[in-house]
Amino acid sequence: MSGFDDMDVDTIWMNGDFVDWEDATTHVLTHALHYGSGVFEGVRAYDTDEGPALFRWEEHLDRLFASAKPYDLDIDYTREELTEATVELLDRQDLASCYVRPIAYYGYDSLGVSPKDCPTDVTIAAWPWGTYLGEEALEEGVEVMVSSWRKHASSQIPTNAKTTGLYVNSMLAGEEARRNGFTEAIVLNKEGNVAEGPGENLFLVRDGEIFTPGLSESILDGITRDTVITLVEERGYTVHDDVSISRGELHTADELFFTGSAAEVTPIRQVDNVEIGSGTRGPVTEELQQAFFDVVESGEREEWFHYV
Ligand SMILES: Cc1ncc(COP(=O)(O)O)c(C=O)c1O
Which residues form a coiled coil (predicted)? Predict the structure, then answer.
């Protein structure tokens, strides 16, 4: 039994071929399994009014190739080939609204830390995936804790690369939070400033202005972060996207929310049992959430969609 059994999916694209779901396997001596040497993306496709479409696909491809760079990982497929493969993958499985997971990783050849003789394997999977932090979370907001685990600094491991191995940090923080009865964590960076969630960027609203940690705060350069910055600027808000946010500012914020391809726009109603603002979804968060869902449901903003 697996969590995928109930889903109507049967095909994965693997190194150029469409293979049956159960055949998309790799050797136990795969380099990436031992050393976390893979890079990946998490992309949503929405069933928009204009038809099924991948949201901000081009930016996800940009980041996939950029993530591969520091690791010298040669992705042997062009953007067009990966796009064609993904579109056909969704088509073959009749997937409209779903989550897409491309991954490129050092494969099977030898097991020294140096991956020099290992091939780069590339696969793409897709499956239906509902709201990441729960349906209720979108309306009510989530309760989070500041993790005792710090985010590694970008001087230790590039944090702007979406690398598989990095997610042990996210796992530690997220599981610590859930063990303590919270839905999600916030991680501080090495300097003790607010970095992000384990799989989300973080935004703070104060006195009608919007703040989010800058890229030098050891965060992932989130694509939803960029979407939200564009949407808030268009609505006339002042956005500070290059700031440090101290832990204490979390508690005194008027509103806080997470953004991410999986989490979309999720309000935060409590941090460490302290109510944020009125302790429920705030008005600015609601407005931005509405703006975000209007875009992804309508599919009207052509430059952000790759229609399937
Ligand atoms: C650590 C981390 N930060 C932020 C994000 C949000 O990024 P995006 O909006 O591109 O999904 C993610 C999710 O990919 C993440 O894993």
Answer: none
